[in-house]
Design a protein that fits this description.
66 residues, flat, 26% strand, three-stranded antiparallel β-sheet, single chain, mainly beta
């Protein structure tokens, strides 16, 4: 007989790409442990920045602090 799968809980800290994430566990007496997960079988395109066709400047929503 096969063993039942074991599950672990984690918090997504950062999304590196469409198929890569960094997760962290709970802090216990120090910084929380982190692990990078690369998901297989996912084809996610990278997002690019759009330029405003009228003036050649990046869209306002792409500018930080505006």
């Amino acid at each position: 007989m096969a063993q039942a799968p074991s599950y672990q809980r984690a918090i997504v800290k950062q999304v590196l790409a469409g198929d890569s994430i960094i997760v962290r566990g709970q802090p216990r007496g120090g910084p929380p442990p982190e692990r990078q997960l690369n998901l297989s079988g996912i084809n996610a395109p990278r997002l690019g920045r759009r330029n405003n066709a009228a003036d050649g400047k990046p869209d306002q929503k792409d500018q930080v602090g505006s």
